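We emphasize that the prediction below concerns an isolated chain of 361 residues; any contacts that depend on oligomerization or on bound cofactors are therefore not represented. The input was used exactly as deposited, without trimming of termini.
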Amino acid sequence: MPQHPLSANGLRATARDALQVAAAYAAQADTDRRLAPEPVKALLAAGFARHFVPERRGGQEGGFTELLDAVSVLAEGCTSTAWIASLGAQVGRMAAFLPEEGGGAVWREGPDTLLVGGLVPSGSATATDGGWLLDGAWPYVSGVDFSDWALLCGRVPGVGGGELRFFAVPRSTYRIKETWDSVGMRATGSHTLVVEGAVVPAHLSFPYDDLLRGSDRGGRCYRVPHRAVNGLSFVAPVLGAARGLLRRWTDWEAPQPEVVRAGAEIDAAQLLLERTAAAADAGEYSPLLTARATRDCAVAAELLATATGRLFRAHGTRGQSEAHPAQRVWRDVSTATTHAVLRFPTAATAFGAAAHAAREA
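Result of the prediction step, given as a token string:
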């Protein structure tokens, strides 16, 4: 990938440049069910892919608050572009857990390598000389058409159900099966990634548990347990989409109570997410705070889905025209907030268990 000069003001500033490109192509992307090359180039130029890449690889080792701000800004122009930018940044952070030689391979061409993730353990691996033999099909891999590398979760058979590991594979190792036909988030191109008998060297793999614990190698962003920040990656684009729809509301001369209420719900969601990101940046990630982060991301997703529904209904019949952006944003938010990471019942159970353990300690 080519190297891109970044603004001295960081990702927040460059995200606004990418916003203009993403917005210009949003309607076309929705129709085509994939991003045009221009928004992909813009998100790379903005620095999303390199945001969490180690500094020794040319990256930023950036913060979670800055990423939340930048992704939500980009999503005001196109939810799908922001989704790929957000997940690309997060998978870059995850790839930093690879052994030193593995990181050198992934970022050999520079820190703007676009990584995608198959984070559900949909494949299996068996030990072979010097590494692993990987097979499987990973559905819902957003941005896979434009990817340079993929980080895939697979199970290694063994006692007690075996071990979960991540495997980094280059683009030449996998093929794409077009399976994404969702009514919302159409342009994410979240197709199925297929690997058939690929040999993955040992230096391109690491245990899933390493990610859950966090690592003291490198910057602060790697010390955060995965579950303390995972929800942010998926809900940040939703925040920007809802906020953008509210900002496009023009009929303030006769304000509708439902529109005003939607604004309050969006503000409340943003405050929850900002608290989650700030805690991660400050290194606050006890088991209870980690569970609180998961809970708050799920609640924020529900607030944003409700707010977007209110705004969509407030537009009336005109908002349901295929040419009107309100219906596209409503579809995107409705789809994005069904993601498994943002399910409140799961988050509530985890929070209850963590709160009980904290009281008993």
